[in-house]
Amino acid sequence: MPLFDEDVHLIHAYLDGELDLVAALAIERKIAADPYLRKLADEIAALKKVLAEKFPPEALPPRVRSRIEAALAPETRQRMPDWAKIAASLLVAAALSSTLTGIALRGAGPQEIVVAELFDAHLRSLMAAQPTDVASSDQHTVKPWFNGRITQSPRVVDLAAQGFDLVGGRVDVVGRTPLSTLVYRRREHVISLTEVSGRDQLELPFDRRAENGFNMIRWSNRERSYVAVSDLNTNELEAFAKAFRGDPS
Prior knowledge:
Helices cover 47% and strands 20% of the residues. It is an alpha+beta fold. β3 and β4 (189-197) form a beta hairpin.
């Protein structure tokens, strides 16, 4: 079966996390239905992994950095994290190279693939212009935004008094299912909190996990399960989970 340039470009964009939700779901369906596209996606993912391992990204030269900073408006520079944090996020993301297809090539099980997708979603958000699709610190703005985008709006909690500021929310695709992810911030650290409700709850064989400098915490109740991912230390991420659950100190 002939391959079209558009399909090839879309597969590259999909594996790089550059597509919006609708386009990502569409190309996922095409890949699943077409063995030629599946083979191509596997080959591209394997090549990307090898390139990331053999040719790690280099630090941004000071001269280039200063020219970019000079071109930015002052108000934009004030909103951006410093270049060291951006560079660190990019280096970590490249080092992980944990795309879904790459992990599948190593024979990982379904649960490991879900874990990889959650980590990948958090890393992509760090490299994006902003980590949210809807940016607001108002829980009454963030919660209604999810209506019509996922099956059930998430529980949104204002934790500013506990030192965790609500930044907004986004939709992540995990296991080919659109899920709500709330984004919180503690100092310069971003927390991605993904919620799954009802029968689709995530059955992961752990409550805490560390991966390349990032921590993941999972908890559940009768109706929903949650996974929080951040580069916060374990104690602070535990404090976030406890505050979100409403546990007494």
